[in-house]
C-alpha cells in the first residue's frame, strides 16, 4: 500500500470530536492550521512529546490496539500532570515493512488510537509516516491551560501532604506477570494473584487512564501545590518534585496503599501460602508501588489543613477514584530527596530494594 493510501485509510478518516472544529487546515496539507480564537486572553498552550519504541516501551507481540492507546495516553498524562486540557495531536510513525502491509495490524492500531483520542477529546491533526527497521511512535500533544492555574513540579511547600491517585503499582505487577519474572528465586510470585487482579494489572499496564479530570479539579480549586504523573515509578517521579521544589518528600510506610492479600489472592491459594511466601508477595507489591513505572497516576502535594483534605476526599468521591495521602513534605535534608519512614518515624529507606527503571542507567 502506498504511504498516502495508508495515511488516508488508517489515520485521516474518522468521526469528529469537539476539537475538530478549530482546525482550518487538516491532514492532507503541508501543515495543520489551527484557529486559536477560542483561546481566551492569557490562556496558555501546553505542548509535550513522547517517543514510544519497540522493546523499550512495548513488545511487538502486544495488541496493536493497546500500543496505540498507550502511546497517546502517556502523552495525555503529561498534559494531565500540568492540568492542561487536550486539543490536538500529531503522530509520527516509523513502520517496519511487514506491518505497513498488515491491514489487520494497522486497523487495530488505528482503532486503539482513535478510541483513546475520542475518549479524551483530542483530535489528530497530522503526522509523518516512514519505513523503518523497528516500530517507533512519536506523539506530540497540544493542550490549553488557564492563565495561571496550571500545575508544576516546583512549588511543593514544607508541611504539605503528599497524595497519589488510584492503585499505584498495579501496572508494574502487570509487567512482572507479563514477563513472568521470578522474584528472589521464587518463580512467578505474581501469578498467585487471582485471575481478576491479574486482568486488572494487565489492563493498567496496557491501557492506562490519563487523570485529566483529577488535575483539572485540583488546579481549578487551587488544591495542588505541585503535581507530576507517575511514569517511571513513584519514588523516582516524586524525587523530581522534591528536587525542583527544594524539599524532602517523606513517605510513610503505614499510609502506603498496599492491597490486602485476601483481596488479591484466591482464598484457597492464600491458605496454602506460608508466612514467608506471604511476605514475599507483600514485598513485591510494595516494591511495585514504590518503584514500578507505567501507572500514569498522579502524585501531587497539597496543604495539610482539614479543609483541603476534605476537598480532596470530595473530589475522590466525585470522580470515583481513590486518592491516598501517603506522606509529608519536609525541609530539605542533606542530599536526600525522598525517604521512607515506619510507624515509629524511623527512616527505613535503605531497607527497600529499589530497582528503578531509568533510561541510560546502565
Ligand atoms: P510532507 O511530505 O509535506 O511532509 P507527508 O507526505 O509527510 O507530507 O504527509 C502528508 C499529509 O499526511 C500531511 O498532512 C501529514 O500531516 C499527514 N500525515 C502523514 N502521516 C500521518 C500520520 N501517521 N498520522 C496523521 N497524519 C499523517
Ligand atoms: Mg512529511
Q: If you had to describe this structure to a student in words, what would you say it looks like?
A:
This protein is α+β, with helices and mostly antiparallel strands. Helices cover 37% and strands 22% of the residues. The chain contains twelve helices and twelve strands. It has helices spanning 3-12, 64-81, 97-100, 103-119, 170-179, 195-206, 212-220, 234-245, 261-264, 267-272, 275-291, 306-319, and strands at residues 23-25, 33-34, 44-53, 85-95, 123-131, 136-145, 161-165, 224-229, 248-252, 298-302, 323-330, 338-341. The strands form three sheets. Strands 8-10-7-11-9-12 form a six-stranded mixed beta sheet. Strand 1 (23-25) and strand 2 (33-34) form a beta hairpin. Helix 5 packs across helix 6 (195-206). Adenosine-5'-diphosphate is lined by residues 7, 11, 27-30, 91, 93, 124, 126-129.
What is the gist of this entry?
This protein is α+β, with helices and mostly antiparallel strands. It is built from 12 helices and 12 strands. It is globular.
Features:
12 strands; disordered C terminus; binds magnesium ion; 6-stranded mixed beta sheet; binds adenosine-5'-diphosphate; alpha+beta; 12 helices; globular; 362 residues; 4-stranded mixed beta sheet
- Quaternary organisation of the protein chains: single chain
Helix content: 25-40%
Q: What characteristic shape results from the CA principal axes? A: globular
Largest sheet: 6 strands, mixed
Spatially, the strands of the biggest sheet line up as 8-10-7-11-9-12
Strand content: 15-25%
What is the SS-derived class?
Answer: alpha+beta
Overall strand count: 12
The H-and-E topology, N to C, reads as HEEEHEHHEEEHHHEHEHHHEHEE
How many separate helices?
12
State the low-pLDDT regions, or none: 354-362
What does the average pLDDT come to? 91
Rg calc: 21 Å
Q: What is the rounded distance between the termini? A: 40 Å
Bound ions, cofactors and other small molecules, one mention each? adenosine-5'-diphosphate, magnesium ion
